[in-house]
């Protein structure tokens, strides 16, 4: 039975969105603006990374020199320690640090794993790790061992601010939620680094990293960088 013309007209008037094209244009405009904001944010973040990492490499060059000499004098071993870490989207990269442990530290890690103080079993933590040298304990307390990562920032493997880069074996133990940390470039400092560092349990680290990822901004990065200064000076939670 054909639909009554008046009923059909009333139905179309009621359920047809006359402003569809207008709403579509408004939506696409919002998308374009958002994409532009994201691109500008990434540009500002990368610019900040390059300028500040270069600045600190020059400013802290005497610290680099004295640290290198102290490491060599203590045990004549290598100055730097290179390790494979996992970066953005699961991509591995060479991660640089001043060596703060004995030369054979990695080989002794399996023996010490039974003394792991991290309850989650994902990361390895020991407050009194016997593999750490005397110089190593000092440079770890004040995060001097992390300074070579400024080179990682210049290379583009890392950012100044972002989740700390995990080891491959740690990523193998990640849950789907934990893997959200890999959505952006890892950083030298992050929210939990300025809120207690190694004293913060792994699950809380993940939560704080996810909060940062979902609300990151140029100004938030600057705030975290400023908070990093007193965190480094006090050395709280570093071991």
Word description of this protein:
- The structure is a single chain.
- With 239 residues, the chain is mostly helical.
- It has one domain.
- It is 52% helix and 8% strand.
- It is built from nine helices and four strands; from the N terminus they run H-H-H-E-E-H-H-H-E-H-E-H-H.
- It has helices at 5-15, 20-59, 61-75, 105-112, 134-141, 149-155, 168-171, 202-215, 218-234, and strands at residues 80-86, 92-98, 159-161, 187-189.
- The strands form two sheets. Strands 1-2 form a two-stranded antiparallel ribbon. The chain has a two-stranded parallel sheet with strand order 3-4.
- Helix 2 (20-59) packs across helix 6 (149-155) and helix 3 runs antiparallel to helix 5.
- The longest helix has 40 residues, at 20-59.
- It starts with a helix and ends in a 5-residue tail after the last helix.
Percentage of helical residues?
40-55%
Rg (CA only): 25 Å
Task: Give the termini distance in whole angstroms.
Answer: 82 Å
Please indicate the percent range of residues in DSSP E strands (runs of 2 or more).
5-15%
- How many individual domains? 1
Counting helices, strands and paired strands, the structural category is mainly alpha
Q: Summarize the biggest pleated sheet.
A: 2 strands, antiparallel
Name the strands of the widest sheet in spatial order. Answer: 1-2
Anisotropy-based shape:
elongated
SSE string, helix = H, strand = E? HHHEEHHHEHEHH
Point out poorly predicted stretches. Answer: none
Total strands: the figure is 4
The count of helical stretches stands at: 9
Q: Give the integer mean of the pLDDT values.
A: 84
């Amino acid at each position: 039975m054909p639909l009554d013309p008046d009923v059909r007209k009333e139905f179309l008037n009621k359920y047809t969105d006359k402003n569809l094209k207008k709403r579509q244009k408004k939506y696409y405009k919002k998308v374009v603006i958002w994409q532009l904001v994201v691109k500008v944010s990434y540009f500002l973040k990368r610019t900040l990374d390059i300028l500040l990492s270069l600045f600190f490499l020059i400013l802290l060059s005497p610290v680099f020199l004295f640290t290198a000499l102290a490491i060599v004098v203590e045990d004549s071993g290598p100055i730097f320690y290179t390790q494979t870490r996992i970066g953005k989207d699961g991509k591995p990269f060479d991660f640089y640090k001043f060596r703060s442990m004995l030369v054979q530290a990695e080989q002794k890690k399996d023996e010490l794993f039974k003394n792991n103080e991290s309850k989650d079993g994902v990361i390895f933590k020991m407050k009194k790790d016997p593999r750490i040298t005397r110089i190593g304990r000092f440079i770890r307390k004040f995060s001097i061992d992390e300074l070579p990562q400024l080179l990682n920032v210049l290379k583009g493997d890392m950012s100044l601010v972002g989740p700390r880069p995990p080891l491959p074996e740690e990523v193998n133990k990640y849950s789907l939620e934990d893997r959200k940390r890999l959505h952006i470039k890892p950083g030298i400092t992050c929210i939990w680094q300025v809120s207690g560092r190694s004293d913060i349990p792994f699950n809380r680290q993940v939560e704080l990293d996810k909060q940062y990822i979902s609300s990151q901004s140029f100004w938030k990065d600057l705030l975290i960088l400023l908070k990093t200064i007193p965190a480094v000076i006090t050395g709280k939670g570093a071991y």
